[in-house]
Amino acid sequence: MDTNSRPLKWGVEPRNTPTASTFRRKTAEVLGKYSDSNIQYLGTPSGSTPTIFKSSQVSEGESTVGQESGPIGAVWDADDDEFDRWPDKQDLENAVHSFTAHRGTFKGIPHFKSHAFEAQQDVVRGSNLTAQQREDYLHELADKNCGNPHGFDAHDEVMKQFYQASCPALPISAPSDQPHVLDYKSYLADEDTVVQAARPRLADAVATVLYMTSPRCLAEFLDPNVKTFEWRRDGNHVMIRRTGKDVIVGTYSNFATTYLWPLFVRSHIASSGSWQEVYAGAAQILTPVTVEGVEFDKSVTEEEIDDVDPEDEKYTLHMGRLLGKILLEWSVWDFRQWRRWNVEWETDGVVVNAREHGNEALRMMRDME
């Protein structure tokens, strides 16, 4: 598939660094559950409250990274277990199967509503529900037909309790199809069965990753004067790239002349600030890399999948939420935890190393004391 003819819709290392098997198991669990300033921000009328997410290049995890060793540039100098730890073709196939196998299974009335934010008192948790209500919610959350690309759904009803007010540009009162910064720690640590069955929208995960990398990173992502913004992490590769109002988010392997994307989602930002996933790979995506750089407009699919339309809005929403969960689960921005890997963002050709940026901010704070 030629994307020109068919647009893709879209500091200190921890003592116990996850082993390859642990990383792989954890990723499988995530997929398994599913398979089961003066800146006028994007989508914001002049003088109004910003309603779109700030951004900068970030990847799965927390914090920004500066790496002691050089970035992994090709398959032959990658770590032995690198490609055993990150989402691969089998994981993608499992996610596709989950989508096809869990459609139309919920027999009740879905929680389809407008995107309007409702009072925090409506917070939905399994512990606040009767046994029957809890079972109904779990079945609805699992049914891919119950996802609502154009409005509020059961996932949003659960996730809104984790919207954070720490970023004024992304208010918690913004509609559910616009970005919010999430209290990801509380979400991931919550053992409530209904909470853990719910998934964040990709826009919320992206906003959280970029904000945790640096508020500046998010602001540059949101700045409409920025034509191209890219957040990336090497090692276990992740990319968040905005070109105009189109956003690519995905995990990939770097084979020097090709990027291979097991998970790839393209979204579009409307003038209102709302996000919609418009394309999600149902097969691996290959993007050529030449002396001119990464040729995103020449991406092709590895193969066609007959029973899944990569532009199906229910499928793109499903894959966006799956990818969003992975980004949060692995704190892709966290250069302190993932010390070996480099995190940086690039704004119209200007590259910022997240670790160096963070260290400079700390030095400035110390100088002010």
Task: Describe, in plain words, how this protein is organized in 3D.
The chain is of the alpha+beta class. The protein has a domain at 20-101 and 205-368. The protein contains 11 helices and 10 strands. The protein has helices at residues 20-35, 82-85, 89-101, 131-142, 154-159, 184-189, 193-197, 202-213, 215-222, 313-329, 354-368; strands at 228-233, 237-243, 246-254, 258-269, 275-280, 285-290, 293-294, 300-301, 343-347, 350-353. Strands 2, 3, 4, 5, 6, 7 and 8 form a 7-stranded antiparallel β-sheet that branches. Strands 1-9-10 form a 3-stranded antiparallel β-sheet. The longest helix is centred in the last third of the chain and has 17 residues, at 313-329. It is globular, with a radius of gyration of 20 Å. Mean pLDDT is 79; it is low at 1-41 and 43-84.
